[in-house]
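Possible regression after last week's pipeline update?

I re-ran a chain I had predicted before the update to compare outputs. Posting the input and the new output here so someone can diff against the archived version. Not blocking, just want to make sure nothing changed silently.
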Amino acid sequence: MVFEQEEVEKIMKAGRIVRAVREAAPRMVFEGARAIDICNGVEAEVRRLGGEPAFPCNVSIDEVGAHYTSPPGDETVIPPMSLVKVDIGAHVDGFLADSAVTVSVGSEHEEMIGVAEDALARAIQAVRVSGMVSDVGVVVEKYVRSMGFKPIRNLTGHQISQYTVHAGVSIPNVNEGLGGFGGRFQPWSIYALEPFVTLPEARGVIQEGRLGNILHLAKLKKPKDPGQRALFEHIYGNYRTLPFARRWLEGAPRAELADAMLASRALYEYPTLVEASHMPIAQAEHTLLTTDREVLTIT
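New output (post-update):
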């Protein structure tokens, strides 16, 4: 599939928005800052720049790798001596870009941020149109281990499609040959690369933690219950199949029925992803657009 020029323009606009917000986000992160203020600030900036959030802003502290956003009334604050991952997504008519930055709040493990960023730069250089997806994992793991750290084995980059953040191909951060990561980078496709780095003594894998307040429609069939149907129509009308936050439902029709929809599996709530030995994690992420002959970093 070749993107139409109008679609490319929307993809590039989403990338420009995410790049600008990624640059601004670290100023929102400091000791004592409220996580909900960071989430709201990032999402408001995406909208101010002409996009919509592709997913709720993730604010993941220390051993939490991903999938935490503030619920309504969240009292979480940024602690001292922490590593804070801010994951940002924007879309324009469903064409989306995704990026993340890690901020040190006096952490003794600040060096991991540079390792994650450098691993990402090397991963991007390894991407070639029609090149092997598995090449990225080889490059990332070799570099991260050479710097005395460990990549997270079961967190990966991902392909992106319209209104779908994780689509098709997963992009490894470790060298596993072709096992589970066969295939090639296709022309006219969107990919997010995101190395996750932890300490050498860590287990280097993530496990599911508590629920993270991020939901998406798991069933696209309208519920029979009138209240649930109204909520479904609100969700689909505003977010389609993209993830959304519990706090975004405030004021939505019959928002209190979200739990009933979760119980019936019409909605799915993402668990947080936590390093298994509770060691801190640093992350870096950019989104790439491939054409028929080149690779563009759009964020």
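Follow-up from reviewer: compared with the archived run. The mean pLDDT is 96. Marking as no regression found.
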